[in-house]
Structures are given as C-alpha cells and as structure tokens.
Amino acid sequence: QVQLVESGGGLVQAGGSLRLSCAASGSTFETYAMGWIRQAPGKEREFVAAINWRNSNAAYGDYVEGRFTISKDRAKNTMYLQMNSLKPEDTALYYCEADPDGFGPGVESSDAYGYWGQGTQVTVAS
Fold it and tell me: Rounded distance, CA 50 to CA 62, Å?
C-alpha cells in the first residue's frame, strides 16, 4: 500500500525559504507522477508542482514563477520541494500526492492523484 509522509513545513518570514520532503513507500513509483498540491483555508486545492519519477520532467503552477524547485532522490524514495522567496499567499497545507497513471497531460490537475499524505503546514508571515 502506498504511503506518503510529508515533513519540513513551518513558520517563515516573507522572502524566506523552506524545503519540504515526502517519503514514499509501498511501490517502486517508476511509472508514477509525484506532486505537491496545496490548500489554504477556505480555498480550493491548488496544483503546485509535479515530477516524473522516471525521468525528472517537471511541471509547476503558474504562480510559482521560478521560486520553487521540485526534485527527487530515487534511492531514498523521497521527493522534495525547495521553496524560495516565499510570500504570505503561499500559506497553506501542502500535500504530497502520487498518481500511478504517470506524468501525463492531467498532471496539473489537483484531482489527478490517487494517493496523498497527511500534509505539512507552511505559514508565511508578512
């Protein structure tokens, strides 16, 4: 059974940085797309970034504007999200999610993923 465990969230000042981690288990993930989805209170789920586990092709939400970088360590089955130049509007619960159907056209849909973790809170103070 796929299990995803996020870590690395916290409170940071605007302009600061955080690195989120997602430890994945229960599969080889070779054919998966892995991604980050976030949800702020009272708002819809929002796609942040995704990565092809096989070849590291990546996609980002438009608002990321080069501030975030998604990466992975296949040996550790761990995915990362390096977030720089954080803004108060980045405040949200960030979920690690996995899509066994792979890195296709629907990867930027927040509804595409079949597995998700418990989330890690990111709070950016102004």
Answer: 13
SS3 string of 53-98?
CCCCCEEECHHHCCCEEEEEEHHHCEEEEEECCCCHHHCEEEEEEE
| Cα 2 from Cα 75, distance rounded (Å) | 17
| Distance from C-alpha of 47 to C-alpha of 37, rounded to nearest angstrom | 5
Kindly tell me if the per-residue pLDDT of 116 is higher than 90: yes
Q: Is the dihedral angle over the CA atoms 116, 111, 88, 66 positive or is it negative?
A: positive
Which amino acid would we find at residue 10? G
Rounded alpha-carbon distances, angstroms, from residue 78 to 37, 86, 96, 98:
16, 22, 10, 12
pLDDT digits (tens, 9 = 90+) for 9-24: 999 999 999 999 999 9
